[in-house]
Amino acid sequence: MLTARAQRTLEAIDGGTLDEMRALRDETERFMLRYKFGMDEVITKLSILREEFNQNHDYNPIEHISSRLKSLDSVVAKMQRKGIEPTFDTIRETITDIAGVRVTCSFVSDAYRLAELLTAQRDIQVLKVKDYIAEPKENGYQSLHLILEVPVFLSTGAHAVAVEVQIRTIAMDFWASLEHKIYYKYDRQVPKELLDRLTDAAHTAAELDTRMERLHREVHGAPAHERGSVAV
Questions:
Q1: pLDDT band at 16, cuts 50/70/90?
Q2: Where do the DSSP E strands lie in the chain?
Q3: d(Cα 149, Cα 216) in Å, to the nearest integer?
Q4: Which of 13, 170, 225, 230 has most Cβ atoms within 10 angstroms of its Cβ?
Q5: Are 166 and 176 spatial neighbours (Cβ–Cβ below 8 Å)?
Q6: How far is CA 210 from the centre of its chain?
Q7: Rounded CA gap, 23 and 25, in Å?
Q8: Which residues of 7-19 are buried (b: 16+ CB within 10 A; e: fewer)?
Q9: Are 64 and 167 in contact (CB under 8 A)?
């Protein structure tokens, strides 16, 4: 139900302008839908791997899969921060995290193993790899960030869509979740003392990952996985 003010505004707009507005709205919805479908494709691939591991292996490296699609407001805000031209082609070329998938693994070696299995699939193209496990961020954060391009097959043909995949351990996922809440609470103006304690906690989480994986190898004989082995 439109408000009286909205109704008056609509009545003041000529028919041609309204048609243009509707066409832009429809094109925007189709554009965002492709990213949702690309995200769904990656989730399906990960779910297949998880089910196959459950059936054929002693344990499953995937603990949890989550996803998020940026809102149109978030996409517009990022465009403004980057100072990019507001066209669909420019957004497609410069903003690669509209669709995001996060995978939580038990161990660091699982993160690398899963990344290799996913990127080895022939219909996936690796656009970028940021290995924050081999080279942690300044605040101690560790994770694998992959920008993958996957084909989405629609009635209009195949469309290549970029999807960001983050793969990290349970310990680091817990740390990242806490950090996000703290930054939100302080509106990103976090006191230095608290930042130092967060960094120390990240190092503790990384140490826990190392100790737990060492125990895992002793029990199961699983080989240690080389860090920094995901190729672009």
A1: low
A2: 62-69, 99-105, 125-131, 144-154, 157-169
A3: 33
A4: 230
A5: no
A6: 24
A7: 5
A8: eeeeeeeeeeeee
A9: no
- Number of other CB atoms surrounding residue 26 within 10 Å: 10
- The whole-model pTM stands at 0.83
Which residues are the active-site residues?
164
pLDDT over threshold 90, residue 28: no
CA dist 185 and 180 (Å) reads 9
Q: What's the rounded Cα separation, in Å, for the pair 191 and 49?
A: 42
| 93-129 pLDDT tens trace | 899 999 999 999 999 999 999 999 999 999 999 999 9
Torsions phi, psi of 105, nearest 5? -115, 165
Question: How high is the pLDDT of residue 137?
Answer: 92
Picking from 69, 72, 70, 67, the residue whose alpha carbon sits closest to that of residue 28 is 72
- Residue 220: band (very low, low, confident or very high) from pLDDT cuts 50, 70, 90: confident
- The candidate with the shortest Cα–Cα distance to 61, out of 117, 128, 111, is 111
Helix (H, G, I), strand (E, B) or coil at 175: helix
Output the DSSP codes for 97-119: -SEEEEEEESSHHHHHHHHHHHH
Pairwise CA distance, residues 66 & 26, whole Å: 27
What is the rounded distance in angstroms from the CA atom of residue 111 to the CA atom of residue 105? Answer: 6
User: Is the distance from CB of 105 to CB of 169 less than 8 angstroms?
Assistant: yes
CA 97 to chain centre: 6
Kind of pairing between the strands at 157-169 and 125-131: unpaired
